[in-house]
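Example record

The entry below shows one chain as it appears in the dataset: sequence first, then structure tokens.
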Amino acid sequence: MANHSSGKAHHQWKGGRRIGTNGYIVIWLPIGHHLRGKNGTGYEHRLVAEKKYGRRLRRNESVHHVDGNKQNNDPSNIVLCKSEAHHRVFHRTCGFNRQLPDEGNPIIECACGCGRAFTKYDKWHRPRKFWSGCRPGGQSHSQAKLDIVAVQKIKNHKGLMKDIALKFGVSRYTVGAIKSGRTWSKQK
């Protein structure tokens, strides 16, 4: 009859601590432990973080190693991040300029000088300097050439969108966008 012992009773037991394929230290955890995976192990850095902060980690929380060494699980080297997105901020390379987690999306003016206002970051969190169709040097499409006074007149004008578009020489889309505030911020 074969001996099917596990854990400390197994004949190949090496202390219950090893380096996983992802570079983190994996430790054997007792049955019923909340950090224990299906194979009976869990990550040491998560256990250290729980002891350091005095509470269980939430599912979405991530642990960051300050010195970048995944095997240095000293409590002074562990920082808790509230999400994976916040954790990725620590690993950004120089020149990475995408929108940070919890960072606002301010209204900016087009760098070509057309006066067009829009949100700084697009839906993929990439920063923008120019409105779509505008180019450095002031060359832009007719919609972007509207000045602040014309935008205010369009905003305040009553009537059908097609009539307003004809009167000001712009497209119905431009009129709708200005009236809804999608492309133009409130001008002072």
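Notes for this example: Confidence is low (pLDDT under 50) at residues 139-144, 184-188. Residues 44-53 form the longest helix (10 residues).
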